[in-house]
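Appendix B, Record 12. Input sequence as logged:
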Amino acid sequence: MKEEVEKLIGASLKDLNIFIDDAYTSEEENKKIFNIVLDSEEVIDLNKVTEASRIINDILDKENYLSNDIDELDIFSKEKGDV
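Logged structural output:
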Protein backbone atom coordinates (compact mmCIF):
# COMPACT_ATOMS: atom_id res chain seq x y z
CA MET A 1 0.00 0.00 0.00
CA LYS A 2 2.83 2.38 0.89
CA GLU A 3 4.43 1.90 -2.53
CA GLU A 4 1.17 2.76 -4.33
CA VAL A 5 0.67 5.93 -2.31
CA GLU A 6 4.31 6.89 -2.69
CA LYS A 7 4.10 6.48 -6.46
CA LEU A 8 0.92 8.54 -6.61
CA ILE A 9 1.89 11.33 -4.20
CA GLY A 10 5.63 11.22 -3.51
CA ALA A 11 6.84 13.58 -6.23
CA SER A 12 4.31 16.23 -5.21
CA LEU A 13 5.75 16.38 -1.67
CA LYS A 14 9.42 16.76 -2.67
CA ASP A 15 9.27 20.57 -2.65
CA LEU A 16 8.24 20.36 1.02
CA ASN A 17 11.14 17.98 1.76
CA ILE A 18 8.60 15.44 3.00
CA PHE A 19 8.24 11.79 2.07
CA ILE A 20 5.71 9.02 2.75
CA ASP A 21 6.96 6.83 5.61
CA ASP A 22 3.96 4.51 5.68
CA ALA A 23 0.39 4.07 4.45
CA TYR A 24 -2.02 1.57 5.98
CA THR A 25 -5.61 1.01 7.03
CA SER A 26 -6.77 0.60 10.60
CA GLU A 27 -10.06 0.32 12.41
CA GLU A 28 -11.17 2.40 15.38
CA GLU A 29 -14.62 2.66 16.89
CA ASN A 30 -16.11 0.72 13.95
CA LYS A 31 -14.60 3.17 11.43
CA LYS A 32 -12.13 2.14 8.75
CA ILE A 33 -9.31 4.70 8.60
CA PHE A 34 -6.71 5.17 5.88
CA ASN A 35 -3.51 6.43 7.54
CA ILE A 36 -0.66 8.22 5.79
CA VAL A 37 2.49 8.81 7.83
CA LEU A 38 4.79 11.63 6.71
CA ASP A 39 8.47 11.97 7.51
CA SER A 40 11.39 14.27 6.74
CA GLU A 41 15.02 14.77 7.61
CA GLU A 42 13.88 17.80 9.60
CA VAL A 43 11.04 18.42 12.04
CA ILE A 44 7.71 18.76 10.23
CA ASP A 45 5.74 21.63 11.73
CA LEU A 46 1.94 21.87 11.68
CA ASN A 47 1.95 24.25 8.70
CA LYS A 48 3.84 21.71 6.58
CA VAL A 49 1.51 18.90 7.63
CA THR A 50 -1.44 21.08 6.64
CA GLU A 51 0.12 21.95 3.29
CA ALA A 52 1.00 18.31 2.62
CA SER A 53 -2.54 17.26 3.61
CA ARG A 54 -4.03 19.62 1.04
CA ILE A 55 -1.77 18.24 -1.68
CA ILE A 56 -2.53 14.64 -0.70
CA ASN A 57 -6.29 15.22 -0.48
CA ASP A 58 -6.34 16.87 -3.93
CA ILE A 59 -4.46 13.97 -5.52
CA LEU A 60 -6.48 11.24 -3.80
CA ASP A 61 -9.73 12.96 -4.78
CA LYS A 62 -8.61 13.50 -8.38
CA GLU A 63 -7.49 9.87 -8.71
CA ASN A 64 -10.55 8.59 -6.81
CA TYR A 65 -8.07 6.48 -4.83
CA LEU A 66 -9.97 5.80 -1.62
CA SER A 67 -12.60 3.11 -1.78
CA ASN A 68 -16.10 3.60 -0.41
CA ASP A 69 -15.38 1.43 2.62
CA ILE A 70 -12.89 4.02 4.00
CA ASP A 71 -14.61 6.29 6.52
CA GLU A 72 -11.75 8.62 7.39
CA LEU A 73 -8.36 9.80 6.13
CA ASP A 74 -5.70 10.52 8.75
CA ILE A 75 -2.48 12.25 7.68
CA PHE A 76 0.19 12.80 10.32
CA SER A 77 3.94 13.09 10.75
CA LYS A 78 6.35 10.95 12.74
CA GLU A 79 7.38 12.33 16.07
CA LYS A 80 11.00 13.50 16.17
CA GLY A 81 11.35 13.65 19.95
CA ASP A 82 12.44 16.67 21.94
CA VAL A 83 13.29 19.69 19.83
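The first strand starts at residue 19 and ends at 28.
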